[in-house]
Write a structure and sequence with these properties.
It is a single chain. By secondary structure, the protein is mainly alpha-helical. Helix content is about 45%, strand content about 10%. A hairpin with a 6-residue loop joins strand 2 and strand 3. Helix 2 runs antiparallel to helix 3.
Length: about 80
Amino acid sequence: MEPVTTSDLIDPTRKAMRRMQQGPLAGYMPYTKQTEGVLRALAELKPETLAVMHGSSYLGAGDRLLRDLAGVVKETFDRE
């Protein structure tokens, strides 16, 4: 895995979240109804670099990536 990327990270993130939800670590992410709003508020800052703990850091339109991530997190963890 490259330390920095400009590639889209949403599809790999979606796949990884779905895979994690199938195993013993299901529900591993602390999700609340505010999570989507927090990610969207961060997107409004229009970051150009997103440094992450695990995986490649991202250079590019961080606002788009964060909005897309908000959707993926909601679709994965908002199970009412």
